[in-house]
Design a protein that fits this description.
globular; 4-stranded antiparallel β-sheet; 98 residues; alpha+beta
């Protein structure tokens, strides 16, 4: 599991073996308590990583947790980026796979 700093949060990323899925969990930076987690497909991961980069560069607004402006509320951010809350399942493609 790799540790990243995303918008003031400590984020751990782990690929799920033999799948197209990645497990993300984020923690409070100052004492490490778990704030949330999410399983994303490779397409969703690319969307999230692009959105994090845009927000870090100031090209995208993102919700903050405190008046000091740090850290970002990643649950609200992921909900905005993915169009679903972290606890909700990802939409399933209606077309059957061949």
């Amino acid at each position: 599991m790799s540790d990243l700093q995303w918008l003031g949060n400590r984020v751990q990323v782990q690929d799920i073996d033999d799948t197209d899925l990645t497990y993300l969990q984020w923690r409070r930076p100052w004492h490490g308590s778990l704030r949330g987690y999410l399983v994303v497909s490779s397409q969703e991961r690319a969307l999230v990583e692009a959105a994090v980069e845009e927000a870090a560069d100031g090209r995208r607004d993102h919700p903050r947790l405190d008046a000091a402006g740090r850290p970002t509320d990643l649950e609200a951010f992921f909900t905005e980026v993915l169009g679903r809350r972290p606890g909700e399942p990802a939409p399933v493609d209606a077309a059957p796979s061949a």
